[in-house]
Each structure stands twice: as structure tokens, then as C-alpha cells.
Design a protein that fits this description.
Length: about 100
């Protein structure tokens, strides 16, 4: 009798069957990953912001907040702060140079 190269349908089903404990572990892992993804998006959104002048996405520690604009971030280094002040706040632009 020749050996069988392909498993029968019954053998394949037996290999695929998972116990209730294994299924519960998979569900729990999936819930944890979904929760982590949700929180990680909020954390990343909290840590990053875009410069209002150049549009570069940076960590908030590398950005300065405009004193006069609400919720506007500008690069600390470079000419972004000067450009923002000169264009939007020309009366007080010399204070920041």
C-alpha cells in the first residue's frame, strides 16, 4: 500500500480544531491589541504636532506655541517663528527676534 501524501479531510479538521481555552486566549490577545492600537494613536497624536509655517511634523518639544494664536505650533529652530510673527503679528514681531 502506497503512503498517502495528502491528509484526509478528517485529519485536516482535527489539526485545525482549537480548544475553548486556545480560542479564549486568541480573543483576549486580539482585544489587547485593539486596545493598544486605540491608545497608541492617542499617544502619538498627543506627542506630535505640525508646524504652522513649514508643515513639518515634529515632536511637541521641538515646537514653540505662539503667544497670540490659539493652538498654533511653530518650529523652535530656524526661521519659522520669525516668519509667522512677521506675517501674522507684525506689530510685535520684533519682540521675538
Amino acid at each position: 500500500m502506497a503512503p498517502r501524501l495528502h491528509p484526509s479531510n478528517q485529519e485536516a479538521r482535527e489539526r485545525v480544531m482549537l480548544s475553548h481555552e486556545e480560542l479564549e486566549k486568541i480573543r483576549e490577545e486580539r482585544e489587547v491589541m485593539d486596545t493598544w492600537r486605540t491608545y497608541s494613536r492617542h499617544v502619538v497624536a498627543y506627542l506630535l504636532e505640525a508646524c504652522a509655517v513649514c508643515g513639518m511634523l515634529r515632536e511637541k518639544v521641538h515646537l514653540a506655541r505662539c503667544r497670540w494664536c490659539e493652538d498654533t505650533y511653530i518650529c523652535k529652530e530656524g526661521v519659522c517663528a520669525q516668519q509667522h510673527q512677521a506675517e501674522l503679528h507684525p506689530a510685535v514681531a520684533f519682540w521675538t527676534w
